[in-house]
UniProtKB/TrEMBL annotation:
GO terms for molecular function: DNA ligase (NAD+) activity; metal ion binding. This is DNA ligase. The gene is ligA. It comes from Methyloglobulus morosus KoM1. SUPFAM superfamilies: BRCT domain (SSF52113), DNA ligase/mRNA capping enzyme, catalytic domain (SSF56091), Nucleic acid-binding proteins (SSF50249), RuvA domain 2-like (SSF47781). Belongs to the NAD-dependent DNA ligase family. LigA subfamily.
Length: 653
């Protein structure tokens, strides 16, 4: 499942048609097979992965991105511009400014041989310049896996597209310090977070370090834990020139290669995803220059140790807002290509049971980007740890296929609290309703979003929302935030998404509301929803069912009066300009360009009526191959225009 955050990024970036189709996106991401994709699809997929990765919400592991999808593009089109430029990041809000110096990516090497080749290249350049190769000094530093930025002493810039970045000086105003000597103005570096700090203080709030780093940069008010991390100096901007390093000659580097690489990985307590080698002589740097993608005097070595064998300490069940119980394996903390990993998820309890995952199980772990890694393979199984009762409410758990569920929807604290938390988090126009507050409210008998909106100041104070000196500011703040959530404008699709309807992530909510007004959606049938692109039959049925279930609660909350921005309807606009609006069309035969069902949906979207047989009312008969004579004759008799699939495509333009 794509997360709400991922869908939101896709929604706002709208780069490609593929980003409007989360189901297809997920299918590609999960199969990690690139050869079946068309060129367009492959490029679109790479761009989407890149956008998500740079926004802190990676969709696929780095390894899959590099060695499956990027490699496929390289195999097909070695000269493709995407491979030869800096992968741009989605612009963060803030002023766009030209970078004082170009920021590039790095060339990558995965073997010692490639590094040796690079050394030979540098030595050749030295000889050409009349410099004795033995006198050259090489520098090795940890390749920080953080968020690249550039500090000119006044402004801190993001890398952007390598030429223009965003002014994010605000991170210094938030109290972030510079790592190393602490001096400003030292050029390129990365925003990084201390690994041990992340694991003990942030791992519960942020899915991964990349996610945290991106959040530090955003304009939005900082999450309290993130602010605390900055103030505790656990998150810093570290200039590359200040990094601890190894320096030596080419001969020393070749002789002690493995030891140097191992040593560099231990020099900092930040996520590291390789070693950067560079030559220090400025004359050679100048002489070699750069491609549009990387400096020729620098190279990144990435070892392939991206998998590790790890022991499971225990499997912890977590009940989600839908009642599904997810198995989370707590692991012996293990360093995997730079990151310290202490938790992994198994796909579902079916897998836990079948493969024997419990205390003491040895598993093979693959680092998935920076996301909580998934368990790839069980090496030595143990007795599986399967819960019988919900860890939150104690009710009996039941199996549905591979999944375990707690069915106590109306009383299970985990489900209620996660549902409420999801509501406020999705609205994203309020603060204060995090896990702890909601837990406390629930402990005081408040068990729905509506009930929260009904609370009075006295009730909140009575529940203990006041400071030790008896002041009522905390309770007042909560009421203010509730008010703010209603007054501050939000898109109606976000409001709908906050109800956590099954299969209705933010992307689907927006798509639905592009075709129907918010209050009309409760009257829709499965057939109505299927017509919308991206909704298959199963999804449509689930949506109708869940909408019916939440209708009462939805209406109660809706009537509180929120400041909703209406999604513009696209069907109306498309219909007006569509060449087939108002026509009655019949499709017949086998279509070659796509499925007939899809063509029917498209035609309806463009304002046409679609008939199943040719009658006097038919305007257009569209024919594929193997067309039956009955329809053709009927068309002839009624003087109806008959066109081929090609002609129909041309008509739509
Ligand atoms: N998982 C995904 O979906 C996904 C998507 C896009 C990219 N990626 C990953 O991103 C990588 C490509 O990103 P990139 O273009 O940023 O290139 P890169 O990984 O080669 O990193 C280049 C950057 O390294 C930084 N750097 C860190 N430590 C440094 C040091 N000690 N000295 C000098 N520079 C240092 C610089 O900021 C430079 O901009 C690939 O490895 C890919 O796996 C993953
Ligand atoms: Zn429960």
């Amino acid at each position: 499942m794509l997360s709400p955050a991922q869908l939101e990024i896709l929604n706002t970036s709208k780069q490609t048609a593929l980003s409007a189709n989360p189901d297809r996106l997920e299918e590609i991401a999960q199969r990690t097979k690139a050869d079946s994709l068309s060129d367009d699809e492959l490029l679109a997929f790479l761009q989407i992965c890149n956008t998500l990765y740079r926004s802190g919400e990676p969709l696929i592991p780095d390894k899959a991105y590099d060695s499956v999808f990027l490699a496929e593009l390289e195999k097909r089109h070695p000269e493709h511009p995407y491979l030869h430029s800096v992968e741009a990041e989605k612009a963060f809000s803030g002023k766009t400014v030209a970078l004082p110096q170009r920021m590039l990516s790095t060339e990558k090497a995965y073997s010692k041989e490639s590094i040796q080749k690079w050394l030979t290249h540098i030595e050749k350049a030295a000889t050409e310049l009349g410099i004795a190769p033995e006198t050259l000094i090489f520098r090795a530093t940890p390749k920080l896996d953080g968020f690249a930025a550039y500090d000119d002493g006044k402004i801190l810039y993001t890398r952007g597209d390598g030429r223009k970045g965003t002014d994010i000086t605000r991170v210094f105003e938030r109290g972030m310090i510079v790592g190393g000597s602490g001096k400003r103005g030292l050029g390129a570096g990365e925003i990084v977070v201390n690994q041990s700090y992340f694991n003990t203080h942030l791992a519960d709030t942020f899915e991964n370090a990349r996610n945290f780093q991106a959040s530090v940069i955003k304009e939005k008010e900082l999450e309290p834990h993130a602010l605390e991390a900055i103030q505790n100096h656990a998150a810093v901007f570290f200039p590359f020139c200040e990094l601890p390093d190894w320096q030596g000659s080419s001969a020393e580097l070749t002789t002690n290669f493995e030891a140097i690489v191992a040593k560099i990985h231990t020099l900092v307590d930040y996520d590291v995803d390789g070693v950067i080698f560079e030559v220090t002589d400025e004359r050679i740097k100048q002489y070699l220059g750069a491609t549009r993608h990387h400096h020729r005097w620098q190279i990144a070595y990435k070892s392939n140790a991206e998998t590790a064998q790890v022991k499971v300490l225990q499997v912890t069940p977590q009940t989600s807002r839908s009642g599904r119980v997810n198995p989370v394996a707590e692991l012996e903390p293990t360093r995997l290509s730079g990151a310290l990993i202490s938790r992994a998820t198994a796909h579902h309890y079916g897998m836990v049971k079948e493969q024997g995952i419990g205390a003491g199980t040895l598993i093979e772990l693959t680092r998935s980007g920076m996301v909580i890694p998934k368990i790839e393979r069980v090496i030595t199984p143990q007795t599986p740890q399967i819960p019988e009762h919900c860890s939150s409410c104690g009710s009996n758990l039941v199996w549905d296929g591979d999944y375990l569920y707690c069915l106590n929807t109306s009383q299970c604290p985990a489900q209620i609290e996660n549902t409420i938390e999801h509501f406020f988090r999705t609205l994203a126009n309020n603060d204060g309703f995090g896990g702890k507050t909601i837990e406390k409210l629930h402990a005081n008998g408040v068990n729905s979003v509506y009930a929260i909106y009904m609370l009075t100041l006295d009730q909140l104070i009575y529940m203990g929302f006041r400071s030790q000196d008896g002041k009522n500011q905390i309770a007042k703040n909560l009421l203010d935030q509730l008010e703010r959530s209603r007054i501050e404008a939000i898109e109606d699709w976000r409001f709908l998404g906050a109800f956590g309807i099954w299969r209705m992530g933010l992307g689907n909510c927006e798509r639905l509301l592009q075709h129907h007004r918010l209050l009309d959606i409760f009257n829709l049938t499965v057939e109505d929803i299927i017509l919308i692109e991206g909704f298959a039959e199963k999804t449509s049925a689930a949506v109708v069912e869940s909408l019916a279930m939440i209708k009462d609660e939805f209406m109660k909350i809706y009537r509180l009066g929120f400041n909703l921005i209406q999604t513009p309807l696209i069907s109306g606009q498309q219909e007006l300009t569509s060449p087939i609006a108002g026509l009655t069309i019949v499709f017949t035969g086998t279509m070659v360009h796509g499925k007939r069902d899809d063509m029917i949906k498209e035609a309806k979207r463009l304002g046409a009526k679609v008939g199943s047989s040719v009658t006097g009312k038919t305007d257009l008969l569209v024919t594929g191959t193997d067309v039956g004579v009955t329809k053709l004759n009927a068309a002839k008799e009624n003087g109806i225009r008959v066109i081929s699939e090609e002609e129909y495509k041309a008509l739509l333009g």
